[in-house]
Write a structure and sequence with these properties.
Layout lengths: L12 H15 L9 H7 L4 H13 L4 E4 L3 E4 L3 H26 L3 H4 L8
Antiparallel strand pairs: 1-2
Helix pairs in contact: 1-3, 2-3
Length: 119
């Protein structure tokens, strides 16, 4: 017997974002209290894809939502947690840029438009 997915109630992206921020602030402050994307999406009545979009929007607004596959999502409680999150995001971004440079067969500094000094 196969499991039939149970449809979740529809909520607007604005309502889902409000649920997201409320849930994180109330129950998931600090890395030790992180929540997985799947559980957070279900709690916010949205898909994981939309959840990632909403988290990106909140981060662009300056809300310190942190998360890694190991910790899940949470609001940073300390400067150290925020710093660790920023280091993780930077590492991921650089990894993606290195892949692009390899695909284009171009050195990473050239891809990034680094200035070249005449020698």
């Amino acid at each position: 017997m196969t499991d039939i997915p149970i449809p979740m109630p529809y909520v607007s992206p604005e309502a889902a974002k409000a649920l997201l921020l409320q849930r994180l602030a109330a129950q998931h402050t600090g890395a030790a209290k992180g929540i997985s994307a799947a559980r957070l999406a279900a709690a916010c009545c949205t898909s994981e894809r939309m959840l990632r979009t909403l988290i990106s929007e909140a981060r662009e607004e300056g809300i310190a939502i942190c998360g890694t596959p190991a910790t899940g999502y949470y609001i940073a409680e300390t400067a150290g947690e925020l710093e660790a999150c920023c280091a993780f995001l930077r590492s991921r971004a650089l990894h993606s840029l290195r892949i692009e440079a390899q695909l284009r067969r171009q050195p990473l500094p050239d891809l990034l438009g680094q200035l070249h000094l005449q020698t």
